[in-house]
Amino acid sequence: MSAFKDSQEKQYVRENLWINGILSFLGNSGVNQPRYLCMPGSRAIFEKQLIEMGKASRDNIVACEIDNTIASDIVVALPGCKIIRGNIDRLLGGPKDRLSSPEQRTQEKLFSLFPFDIINLDYEGEAMPLDHNNLSYRIRVWQKIIERQYPTRPFLFFLNTLGQPNRGLKEEHSRIIRDYIIKDIADHFKKKIINDMWKKVESLGGKQLSYKYSRICLYAVPMKIIFLGFPKFKVSLLTAPYTYVGRTGGNKSRMICFAFRFDTYPEELSAGVKRDKDKYANLEQAIDLIEKTVEVYSEEDDYILGKYNLKTNSNWWETS
Ligand SMILES: C[S@@+](CC[C@H](N)C(=O)[O-])C[C@H]1O[C@@H](n2cnc3c(N)ncnc32)[C@H](O)[C@@H]1O
After folding, report:
1. What's the 305 CA to ligand 1 centre distance in angstroms?
2. Which mutation among 39, 69, 121, 123 tests ligand 1's pocket best, with the greatest number of atoms within 8 A of CB?
3. Quick check: is 64 in a domain?
4. Which pTM value belongs to this model?
5. Which among 135, 226, 227 is positioned nearest to 173, based on CA atoms?
6. Which residues lie across from 245 on neighbouring strands?
7. Rounded to the nearest whole angstrom, what is the distance from the C-alpha of residue 91 to the centroid of ligand 1?
8. Which atom, in ligand 1's list, is nearest to the CA of 42?
C-alpha cells in the first residue's frame, strides 16, 4: 500500500482505474509528459503520486478548484502547476454571456490550455445534476470538452461522481435521466438491452430509489459520453466502472467512477457509416462492462472486490 492513501476505496480506484489506465495510455500513445487537467483537492494526493512515478510534471498539470482555500492549498501541494480558480462546470460549459467578467477571463485562460492528454474530473456532486429547464448542464460540459480537444489526439477521460442525487431523491429525476438514454439510442438497441435493463429498474420500489438512480447513472453517463464523442472520436470504456461508498464526516455516499478512452480516426475513415457502426459496437461493449461493475470495499487493510452482474444482481446498493 502506498504512502498516498486516505480512503482505502478511493486509493484503490486511483491505483487501479486511474494509474493502470494512464500507464497503458502512455505506453501506446507515445506521450511522455501528459498534459493533465484535474481537480486534485487540497492534498493533491494522486497528482503527487503521478509526479513521483515520473508520469506527470508540475508544469503540465492544470488544476481547477472552486474553493479559494483549497486552491491555496493546491499552490502549496503542487508548486509550479497552473491553477484555475472557479467552477469547472461554469468555466467549461457556461455560455460566455452568462459569466462574470473575471469568469470570462478565466474561461479564456482555461480554453487556451487545451488540448489535454488526460482529463480527470473528480466531483463530489451528482452525475447529471439538472438545471431549471430539467436538462443536465453537465452534458454541456462534456460536449464542450470534446469540442475543445483536437481530433488528431487521443485522450483519457476519468469521471468520478456521486451515484445518488445531491438533494432529496425524486422519482421524476430518475425519469428525466432515463429519457436521456432512451432519446439517444436507436430502436434495435433500445429494445435489446435498454428495455430489459429499464424494466428491472422500474420494478424496484420507492425505498430503492437511490439504488435505482445509481443504476440509471451507471448506464446513462457512459452512453451519453460515447454518443457525444462520435463522430469526432471513437469512445470506449477502458474497463468496467468502479463503485464504492465514500465517507465524509459521518455521511456515506455511493460513488461511481468511469474511465474512457477517446481514440482518433485516420483521415480516410471519415465516412459516417463506419463510424456509426463503431458507435454501436462501443455502446454494446460498454453495456457488457457496466454489467460487470466492480464494487470496492475495504476491511482493515484488505480490499474486497465484488464484481456485480447487474443483469441478475439487484442487491449491490443494499450490500454497502
Ligand atoms: C473529490 S475532491 C478531489 C479529490 C482528488 N482528486 C483525490 O484524488 O483525492 C474534489 C475537489 O474538487 C473541488 N470541486 C468540486 N466541484 C467543483 C467544481 N464544479 N469546479 C471546481 N472544483 C470543484 C472540490 O472543492 C474538491 O477540492
Report:
1. 25
2. 39
3. no
4. 0.90
5. 135
6. 254
7. 14
8. 27
Does the residue 45 lie in any domain?
A: no
| Number of structural domains in the chain | 1
Cell of 197: 435493463
| 62: in domain | no
* DSSP codes, 30-68: --SS--EEE---TT-HHHHHHHHTTS--GGGEEEEES-H
Show the DSSP H helices in the chain as ranges.
8-12, 19-29, 45-52, 68-77, 88-93, 101-112, 137-148, 171-184, 187-189, 195-202, 209-229, 272-290, 316-319
- Pocket around ligand 1 at a 6 A CB cut-off: 14, 39-41, 45-46, 64-67, 70, 87-89, 122-124
User: What does each C-alpha distance from 129 to 57, 161, 167, 211, 221 come to in angstroms?
Assistant: 33, 10, 10, 17, 12
Ligand 1 centroid vs 134 CA: distance in angstroms? 24
Q: Whose CA is nearest to atom 16 of ligand 1?
A: 123
Query: Cell triple for residue 268?
Result: 480516410
Q: 41 CA to middle of ligand 1, Å?
A: 5
Task: Please say whether the beta carbons of 163 and 256 come within 8 A.
Answer: yes
Pocket test for ligand 1, best of 8, 74, 123, 140 (most atoms within 8 A of CB): 123
Per-residue pLDDT of the chain (320 residues; tens, 9 = 90+): 344 457 888 988 999 999 999 999 999 888 888 999 999 999 999 999 999 999 999 999 999 999 999 999 999 999 999 999 999 999 999 888 889 999 999 999 999 999 999 999 999 888 888 777 767 788 899 999 999 999 999 999 999 998 876 666 566 776 677 666 656 654 445 555 556 666 666 666 555 666 777 777 888 899 889 989 988 999 999 999 998 888 766 677 889 999 999 999 876 555 556 677 777 788 889 888 988 888 887 776 666 666 665 655 545 444 33
Range of the domain at 185: 8-35+115-319
Domain presence at residue 109: no
Contact 213, 164 (CB under 8 A): yes
